[in-house]
């Protein structure tokens, strides 16, 4: 089995470089048998794509998915710069 | 007072088509101009750029954009910029636009920017060709930004980049990767030119607020940070005059 630091590095690169994900804003933290995904993506489909890519690179790890779909609501209020 | 809406890192593609549109159609109620701080697409393809064009075309306020590293991934930045320009966006790379809003002029200078790091912890223009190319790219962009900012005649001057001009707005990112997230050379250009506000993206895990060594407000508007379709800043034109006086 690949040791944890290398597996983390492989996951990090896969998430950033695989065309299905290309996510620079998602973290994969490996802890024992688990990999925690965190960060924000642009839509629901991308959460599923992420899990698929991670599962390919690390099929033995249990995925814990904390990734959120980013809000596209209108802003509440504004900041005054003076 | 000028109302500036801004967002970066929307990373659009066909799967996210139309998601932002409802909030964008109301942007005129919140702001006088909308700034896009790069990473508009995921891979920089023309198909994705078309999604971006449809999302941001025909809005009630002018839309000003710079490209990000993701928009360069397919090696077609010129074509992507042209497609967006053809849809009415102002895409900046080493140039500026000035708009008049209620008798006040806002000028926006835009460059993508690049990495290199921050004072005392940065790469040098030295050694291997690859290293010199990396740092040289940032030096060239920062010189361009400085010249364009200095050339703007407006009441409010804004620097729009993808990469960060300061480390402040990167807090939350691992310090080891700061050299890939921005460069102090951008901040130096901003400070040398009496700029009022610097807007950037790229650091998805960073924080919104920062300041250059010269006292210019910096805002990281990466969408995961602002958690909305865009965020809004109200800028008073006299800020710079008061500081300078
Ligand atoms: Fe991004
Ligand atoms: Fe980026």
Query: What share of the residues of chain A does DSSP label as strand, in percent?
Result: 25-35%
Number of strands of chain B: 13
CATH topology of chain A: Histidine-containing Protein, Chain: A
**H/I helix tally of chain A:** 2
State the CATH class of chain B: Alpha Beta
| CATH 2nd-level architecture of chain B | 4-Layer Sandwich
Overall mean pLDDT of chain B stands at 95
What's the CATH topology label of chain B?
Answer: Purple Acid Phosphatase, chain A, domain 2
What's the alpha carbon Rg of chain A, rounded to whole Å? Answer: 15 Å
Distance between the termini of chain B: 19 Å
| Intertermini distance of chain A | 57 Å
Overall shape of chain A: elongated
Largest interface: A-B, 26 and 40 residues
H/E element sequence of chain B: EHHEHEHEEEEEHEHEEEHEH
Structure overview:
The complex is a heterodimer of chains A (82) and B (245). By secondary structure, chain A is α/β, with parallel strands linked by helices. Chain A has a single domain (4-69), classed as Histidine-containing Protein, Chain: A. Chain A contains 2 helices and 5 strands, in the order αββαβββ. In chain A, strands 1, 2, 3 and 4 form a 4-stranded mixed β-sheet that branches. In chain A, α1 crosses α2. With 245 residues, chain B is of the alpha/beta class. Chain B is 29% helix and 23% strand. Chain B has helices at residues 21-25, 27-30, 46-56, 77-86, 129-151, 184-191, 223-226, 238-244, and strands at 2-7, 33-37, 63-66, 90-91, 95-101, 104-110, 117-118, 121-122, 156-160, 197-200, 209-211, 217-220, 231-235. Chain B has a 6-stranded mixed β-sheet, with helices on one face. In chain B, strands 4-3-2-1-13 form a 5-stranded mixed β-sheet. In chain B, strands 7-8 form a two-stranded antiparallel ribbon. In chain B, α3 (46-56) runs parallel beside α4 (77-86) and α5 (129-151) packs parallel to α6. Chain B is globular and about 50 Å long. The mean pLDDT of chain B is 95. At the A-B interface, β2 and β5 of A face α7 and β13 of B. The complex binds fe (ii) ion (2 copies). Residues 9, 11, 39, 68, 70, 202, 204 of chain B line the site of one fe (ii) ion. Chain A: Residues 7-70 form the BON domain.
């Amino acid at each position: 089995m690949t040791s944890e630091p290398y597996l983390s590095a492989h996951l990090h690169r896969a998430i950033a470089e695989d065309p299905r994900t290309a996510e620079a804003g998602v973290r994969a933290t490996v802890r024992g048998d688990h990999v925690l995904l965190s960060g924000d993506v642009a839509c629901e489909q991308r959460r599923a794509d992420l899990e698929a890519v991670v599962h390919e690179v690390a099929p033995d790890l249990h995925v814990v998915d904390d990734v959120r779909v980013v809000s596209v609501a209108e802003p509440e209020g504004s900041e005054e710069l003076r | 007072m000028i109302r500036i809406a801004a967002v970066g890192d929307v990373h659009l593609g066909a799967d996210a088509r139309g998601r932002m549109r409802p909030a964008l159609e109301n942007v005129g109620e919140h702001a006088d101009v909308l700034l896009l701080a790069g990473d508009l697409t995921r891979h920089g393809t023309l198909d994705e750029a078309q999604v971006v064009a449809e999302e941001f075309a025909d809005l009630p306020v002018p839309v000003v954009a710079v490209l990000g590293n993701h928009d360069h991934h397919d090696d077609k930045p010129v074509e992507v910029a042209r497609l967006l320009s053809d849809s009415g966006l102002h895409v900046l790379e080493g140039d500026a636009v000035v708009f008049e809003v209620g008798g006040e002029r806002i000028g926006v200078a835009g460059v993508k920017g690049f990495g290199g790091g921050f004072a005392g912890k940065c790469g040098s223009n030295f050694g291997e060709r690859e290293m010199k190319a990396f740092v040289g790219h940032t030096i060239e962009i920062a010189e361009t930004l400085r010249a364009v900012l200095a050339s703007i005649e407006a009441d409010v001057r804004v620097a729009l980049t993808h990469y960060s001009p300061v480390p402040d707005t990167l807090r939350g990112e691992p310090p080891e990767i700061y050299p890939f997230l921005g460069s102090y050379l951008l901040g130096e250009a901003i400070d040398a030119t009496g700029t009022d506000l610097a807007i950037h993206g790229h650091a998805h895990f960073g924080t919104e607020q920062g300041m250059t060594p010269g006292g210019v407000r910096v805002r990281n508007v990466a969408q995961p940070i602002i958690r909305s379709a865009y965020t809004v800043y109200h800028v008073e034109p006299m800020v710079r005059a008061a500081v300078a006086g």
